[in-house]
Amino acid sequence: MSNRTFTMVKPDATGKGYTGAILDQIIKAGFSIKAMKWTKLTKEQAGEFYAVHKERPFYGELVEFMSSGTIVAAILEKENAVADFRTLIGATNPANAEEGTIRKKFAASVGENAVHGSDSDENAAIEGDFFFSALERF
Ligand code: CMP
Questions:
Q1: Which of 10, 42, 86, 89 is the most exposed place for a label (fewest CB within 10 A)?
Q2: What residues form the catalytic site here (predicted)?
Q3: pLDDT tens, 27-57?
Q4: How many angstroms separate the alpha carbon of residue 122 from the centre of ligand 1?
Q5: Is residue 113 lining ligand 1, measured as CB closer than 6 Å?
């Protein structure tokens, strides 16, 4: 099992000024930051990042949203990182997220849900490689 995961603070959360509070909650939960950047995806890049969802009805909306503003991308390290991070952020739909989770506190809807968290070790590696070169991770 890998000890790393990948996250993004999404455009809804950066736009509302939640970045600091979200990163604070992540660090206090025991994750350490191994790479981080503040950036903005083009539609093409967002489409490529979410290519696995290409056939889903919400794909167009997802690509539009994820390229609509700035994001903060990061690689995080902790024992059992993927599963523990998904617990910390809560359910994809904030209406179903547990009290105290990042999405419960900061997300508005299933589409604009404040943060991304990788769903497997394999995807964590792929997603981290999408954003960061070897020189940008420590
Ligand atoms: P994320 O974990 O980043 O990965 C896929 C994203 O698709 C997910 O977060 C949601 O933001 C988005 N998503 C999932 N289901 C829906 C939906 N029904 N409508 C709009 N967006 C969705």
A1: 42
A2: 116
A3: 999 999 999 999 999 999 999 999 999 999 9
A4: 19
A5: yes
53 is catalytic: no
User: Is residue 92 lining ligand 1, measured as CB closer than 6 Å?
Assistant: yes
Residues 80-96 have pLDDT tens digits of 999 999 999 999 999 99
Q: Is 115 left (phi over 0), alpha (psi -120 to 50) or beta?
A: beta
Distance from C-alpha of 8 to C-alpha of 115, rounded to nearest angstrom: 5
Token look-up 């792929």 returns 126
User: In this structure, what CATH number is given to the domain that contains residue 47?
Assistant: 3.30.70.141
CA dihedral 33, 39, 41, 46 (to 10 degrees): 10
Supply the range of the domain harboring residue 58.
Answer: 4-136
Catalytic residue (one of 116, 117, 124, 132): 116
Report ipTM (2 d.p.): 0.92
